[in-house]
Amino acid sequence: MDAAPARRWATALTEPLDTAQRIALRVWLGHLGSVAPAAEELGLHRTTLRRWLEEIGRLLDVDLSSAAVRADLYLALETLAGPDDSPGALPRRGGRTYQRSATL
């Protein structure tokens, strides 16, 4: 697939997510859906990450327990990933919480 159609597909699949949500989902998927190591990499409590993932599932209207859904999302997020899509690029507000929009 050419780059332009791939980016359109990936954008359509992940469109409602903000940058922090995309980063959290990408990290979680990179850890094969394991919350503990993903939360540690993100600097979040496991419960916080679980809450974020529930909200992401609702926003995307998908079941994140589905391997096919996770595979599609992983490919989409990797297609869209840029140099600023890393946990270290997220601003801190204090403690272990990222400064976020009111959606999560």
Topology of helices and strands:
Layout: H1 3-14, H2 19-30, H3 35-42, H4 46-60, H5 67-80, E1 92-94, E2 97-98
In words, what does this structure look like?
The protein has 104 residues and is mainly α. Helix content is 59%, strand content 5%. It has helices spanning 3-14, 19-30, 35-42, 46-60, 67-80; strands spanning 92-94, 97-98. A two-stranded antiparallel ribbon has the order 1-2. The radius of gyration is 13 Å and the shape is globular. The mean pLDDT is 87.
Alpha carbon gap, first and last residue? 34 Å
How would you state the average pLDDT, rounded? 87
Tell me about the largest β-sheet: 2 strands, antiparallel
Sum up the overall morphology in one term. Answer: globular
Structural class computed from helices and strand pairing: mainly alpha
How much helicity do the residues have?
55-70%
- Poorly predicted tracts of residues: none
Biggest sheet strand line-up: 1-2
How many runs of DSSP E, i.e. beta strands?
2
* Number of alpha- plus pi-helical segments: 5
Please report which band the strand proportion falls in: under 5%, 5-15%, 15-25%, 25-35%, 35-45% or over 45%.
Answer: under 5%
